[in-house]
Amino acid sequence: MKLLISFHKLFEKYEQLAETNTGYIGEKAKSILKIAKEYPELKNGFTDISTLDKREKEIALILQDSFSELLTQNEIKAASLPFFDKTFNVTKRFQKIIKNAGTDFQLEIKNMPENHRYMMACTIILNEVYGYDLQLKRPFHYEIPEKNGIKRYYKILYNADFIEIIKTENAPNITQQDVDDLLDNFENLALWKEKFPEDSYIFKGFVISNIFDVTDDFAISEIKSNLIDEGKGQDKNFIKDLQSIFQSFLKIPDIRVGFSVFNRDEGVFERVYGEGMHSFLLNDKTIGDCADVLCKSSYKKLLKEKKHISVSNIEEAYKETQGKVPHIKVLYDQGFKSAIFAPIANKDGLMGILELVSHQPKALNSINANKLEDVMPYIVTTVQRSKTDQENLIEAVIQKECTSIHPSVHWRFKQAAQLFIKENIIQKKNMPFSKIAFKNVYPLFGQIDVKGSSDARNLATQKDLSNQLKLAQSIVDKANEQNNMPVYEQIAFQIKTYLNQVETYFKVDSEHLISLFLKNEITPLLELISKINAPLKMEIDRYFSDMDSDLNVLYHHRKHYDDTIGLINKNMSTLLDMKQTEAQKMYPHFFERFKTDGVEHNIYIGESITREDSFSLIYLYNLRIWQIQVMCDMENEFYNNQDLYPLPLDVASMILVFNQPLSIRFRMDEKQFDVDGTYNARYEVVKKRVDKAFIKGTTERITQKGKLSIVFSQQSDEEEYLQYIHFFQAKNILGSDLEVLELEDLQGVTGLKAIRVNIIYKKDTQEETSYFTYNDVMDAIENQNFAS
Questions:
Q1: Beta bridge partner(s), residue 754
Q2: Close Cβ partners of 25 (under 8 Å, ≥ 6 residues apart)
Q3: Could you tell me what percent of the chain has a pLDDT over 90?
Q4: Predicted TM-score (pTM) of this structure
Q5: pLDDT tens by residue, 138-155
């Protein structure tokens, strides 16, 4: 389009007025038409923008009826060119707004993308020249800063009465097919330029821009958008953007925004955790009792009446109350001069506090606090949604951490949940949650167990109890020497009896009996001696300081033991979880692990778990090979880091092979999977007892430190696993010390055998592990056969 600035439409109006009116209106019209004769370019049109400055005075006279001098101080108005930011004949108020924006400010329409201007002009042509009704009207805005930096927002409404669109010879005729093509191709600039070649139409005239300050509406809309956007709360610029909007909304340049959450159950305020989030009410605290954070009247107004409170001059309020009002003091200490606290509440009660603070006295007050009424509904909705999201997250964590529904079987639970909702909520039936079961899945079980863990714990317990008894014995003997009393002798005799029991025949119930004696007999006696025997007070204080504050017993050697088991479990679990993530990429399967005195894991793989017609026994074989390698990795990890553990313990690893597929089901009462059916229960019995099994005809346990034990019952299992072991021997992962052993019969289980082979330990376990597959094993066997 070719822009031609012209006032011809306006002159046409004045020609009508000159012909039909006499008196003042007619004379005025004639005087304006004289300007058109004297300066014909104003009527014929011009493209040179500098003409606007040259004819500024004449243009002002032409436009004086549209731009009343009486309203120039109040109206924000200008003549302008369509689609461009060039303005002229602006009102004095608009001039002042532009001047206050600063010398570097360039006026531009904020929400009109440059690449859209062409298409917008074309749609106007389609409407005005061709009679279509294409709705592309959009509200346009200016964003203009004030002297203090606060941004103000202005809406532009165009009066296009004085513009004309002229089709030139270069303009092709637009057909219905052309319009149909354009309706689905707004972003295709090339297509629009094909239908509307450049300079094929003339826009002759000017438009009048009527401009309105919509900062409040814009701020409310932005607050609404920021709060409703689900991902916005996590954005690191969320608070910064929100503060900027509130600054515009309340016209306070230094306003800061904070939040605190009300915990109804605990009766406390809590800070909100997030990027840039702060609570000025709590300051550096993470939690604060309501009665300690607010005075009684403020507490009543915020919590009971759900009304806002404001302090317009914090410094004066602090002096008047002598710093005794908690929320005044905390604001004063932070250097703020005025503040508003607005309750975020719904029908159920208070959920939190919106905190607005400023370093300017009287900037925030009870009058402008009322403006918050327009935005509080959005804040309430957001906090309510956030609270629901947090509750859902807590439930999700509980589900993840406490019920262990593995991702591989999550689809089945989702199906059951959808059916449950459909039957019970939608169809109003009373149906139980459907049974979750998977048939024909192959199990894999493995464990890395701390050897002699019971003996190690008993030894630690004996040491702690012996040391505590000896400490008590020393104090009682000294007390008896200084002040002979029968009770001292009686207690001393009991101590010696228990010491003898600890050191010679420590029984199952010894720990409990001795702990009760120390708690019920020794502690009250020492407390009494401390009061009546000053010389022994320091020694008694030292005795109590050596006790664990939670358990009230000497907890030194047992702590070393518990810490060691905890670290072993943590490190082994972390490694197993990391390796298991890689195993899922081979083929999806169910996996779970348990921490005991070591780490156990269950794996189930099969068609019913994956839902896809893709399962092959090759995936089972791959997983068995992976399991051997992971057990060796865990052993290496343990012994390479054994010096990090408080106690020098050993571990032993075992794999249980079960050749037949079985069924598993989810036990709703225990929230975990279990085997389904009497025959399958045999597998669970073997799992629980096999690590304690002896080699047939001996008293030697099948599990040994430094060795991997693979327990099986079928000849085919032995043949399969011997192939795997020979492969790992060739890879220098397993050693040459290999045994095939028979196991003593377990209760209800006979015919078990085991392969036991030593593990080769390597110092460097930091490098990435490359896992072997069934194909690797088969290739190695074929190469070996070919070589022989």
A1: 711, 741
A2: 17
A3: 38
A4: 0.56
A5: 778 888 998 878 888 899
